[in-house]
Design a protein that fits this description.
The protein has helices at 20-26, 31-52, 71-94, 110-122, 139-155, 166-170, 218-229; strands at 12-16, 56-63, 98-102, 130-137, 183-186, 205-208. It is an alpha/beta fold.
Length: 240
Amino acid sequence: MKKIDKEKLPKHIAVIMDGNGRWAKQKGFPRSIGHKHGVKSVQLISELCSKLGIEYLTLYTLSLENLNRPKLELISLMSLLSSTIKKEVKTMKDNNIQLNVFGFRDKLSKKINNELNSAILETSNNNGLKLNLALAYGSRKELINAFQVLADQIKDENLNINDIDEETISKCLLTKNIPDPDLLIRTGGENRLSNFLLWQSAYTEFYFSDKYWPDFNKEDLYEALHDFQKRERRFGRINT
């Protein structure tokens, strides 16, 4: 913690929380236990980011590909998501955390969506950390959706094709109200994006940890932040 320069913190941290299932298997537990321990890491890292003054934290909570997992695991995941939302509203309010959700929510049940909407509403007046959950999310589908929106605007003559630029596309994405991540952390020892924030991560700094998500703790977050602060971000330019 002493190595962290609080004047040079990333504005937005994104996290691919990988390794819950492998953590459980390594310990001889069912995968559902790994997901439950993963929730504890979410609580810890969210509260730490809030205390540090990080403005945005985006967590890859459930991908579209995850929806193809075995039925029993999906039932367990949805049950855990439901119970966690209910329990964490008070904690988010106590820590001045505002909850936001993006993804293809039509893939989620009406019950889950109602609970999410309730939690979003209850935390809407909080002005601290903005905690974004990517639920039923896939970046390629997000881009296809954006291009379809643009095509409709062109067809309706509300947009000239020659006026399309990066800003135009960004405004059609599910993350249109969220700045691009400065730092993306992936746990679990894998070094890939797995269809997460492909457009938004063009100039993001990546940090890969071999630790499984349930074992990722405050010292690991501090190490990721320290590593980020040692880097020179040029965004394709040459510093003179």
